[in-house]
Amino acid sequence: MRRMASGEDKVKWIGRILAGAAMLLAALPLPAGTAPLPPVRILLFAGPKQHGPPGRHEYEKDLREIAWMLEHSGANRMVRAQVIVGEKPRDLALLEQADAIVIDGNGDWLKRETGALFPQYAQTDGLNYDAETTAALTAFDALLKRRKTGLVVYHYTMFVDNRAGRIWLSNWLGGAWIPYVSHNPVDTWAIRPSGAKHPILNGVKPWTPREEMYARYFLPDNPGRTLLLTAKPASAANGSGGPVAWAYQRPDGGRSMVWGGNDFHDNMHLFPQQRRFLVNGILWAAGVEVPRGGANDQMPPEY
């Protein structure tokens, strides 16, 4: 006797149908005289993993799964995603091809690690960077502004103690995480959409993971920033919670997004809401229309 599909099974089934329909529509011939849109190009910079036990800070695993989900998101544009491991986003010829850049890696805290964007704090005077680093960051900044490239940053990447680094991040992201003033406790976090009418929140519902959540950000008034998610820790000792993700419409016309989670890798498998939220955010940053019901949240077949 055939069993009745559960609600979750039905949602996944519908998601697969929509993804197939989107791929079919993309393959249909265009009206005469209409040029096809090129694929959207997403570059995802991961790691290297130098921090935390197995199962935590698994940058490459997280981003490879997200890359597959982007290419099967159900968006109305073809998406091509490339994961680059252990490198800073410095290759301007490569970056010229990107509609959005995603960075999930180390901060500048520990000297033995490789910072995702910046040199480690102990290798600097704490205030500025050497001429070579400054030139590379200036070129990266100019490219973001000129091409209006989307920028998405997760978790530990926000740990920047160097003053110049914090200024760069604040300009790109519309806010900063301040080491030793902000915090990142491990707890069970009740994550809730903010209620904002924003495409990144399409189809996103609350979820409650165990997570090391970057929180208590420095968020000065900025009309370009839209709060997306708030989170409250289970333990009162870890505070009352607050913003943990936001979108930022940059003055240059580009788009950025910050998310404080993505420490525990299993959360990628346990919580479809998290998967949908992350894929929605990258699509939006890249200038792609987010599906009305949100991106498909299915995992790659091998999972």
What's the gist of this structure?
The protein has 303 residues and is of the alpha/beta class.
Structural overview:
The chain is α/β, with parallel strands linked by helices and 303 residues long. It has a single domain (37-285), classed as Rossmann fold. It contains seven helices and nine strands. A nine-stranded mixed sheet has the order 2-1-3-4-9-8-7-5-6, with helices on one face. Strand 1, helix 2 (59-71) and strand 2 form a beta-alpha-beta unit. The longest helix has 21 residues, at 7-27. It is globular. Mean pLDDT is 92; it is low at 1-5.
Give, in order, the helices and strands: HEHEHEHEHEEEEEHH
Shape from CA axes? globular
Radius of gyration: 19 Å
CATH class: Alpha Beta
Q: Regions with pLDDT < 50 over 5+ consecutive residues? A: 1-5
Say what the CATH topology is.
Rossmann fold
Task: Domain count, please report it.
Answer: 1
Largest sheet: 9 strands, mixed
Keywords:
303 residues; alpha/beta; nine-stranded mixed β-sheet; 7 helices; disordered N terminus
Layout of strands and helices, then pairs:
Elements: H1 7-27, E1 40-46, H2 59-71, E2 79-85, H3 92-95, E3 100-104, H4 131-147, E4 150-154, H5 163-173, E5 186-193, E6 210-212, E7 225-233, E8 242-249, E9 255-259, H6 267-270, H7 272-285
Parallel strand pairs: 1-2, 1-3, 3-4, 4-9
Antiparallel strand pairs: 5-6, 5-7, 7-8, 8-9
